[in-house]
Amino acid sequence: MISGVVFWPQPPLLLPEYASAADLGAAVRRAAFEALAAVRPESGPVLLLTGAERCAPLGERVARALLQQAGAGEPDAVIRVAVDADAAAVAEAADRVRAAAAAADGPVTLLVAGDGTARASVGAPERADLETRAADERIAAALAAADPAPLAALTASEGAELLISGRLPWQVAAAALTGRRPRSAYAWFDCPYEVGYHVAAWRMTE
Length: 206
Prior knowledge:
By secondary structure, the chain is of the alpha/beta class. It is built from seven helices and six strands.
């Protein structure tokens, strides 16, 4: 059974091959580790939920690297959701998440990888920038409140127009938690490099 959910962003700067002396990913890495520690039972199994946008999905690569750095090892299972998944595919992926959690040995931490908006560039119209900010604010508020409903309500057009890579993994997680009551255990948000990085942890109360 899923005992906790952790949301991590997927910035490439956290991959070892992009490491630098300046350590530009220090803040998001620290937040990711704190979120994982907030809800994961010691040595408990981790189920990774990520987008399948590439042959080697970025979210999966970043999550695996961070899990290794956190001393958590490899995920016990990986569930991938296609970037063009419709409602039926989201429901099917949620069923796979529940099945994998039920088959695990002990309380499961569901780790969900995905970014918020890829923000408009400096030269973009003001309206576009306002839309990205509003979307990230809604996402951050939902994650901080442990409320799956606003994540489930993100539309395909929003995801495409605002480049929200986390939309489908978040919606699969929301569907997998149907009937459960999460409680917020950690929340953090930043938007460096014009991308919304959301980190959160939810603990299941029922």
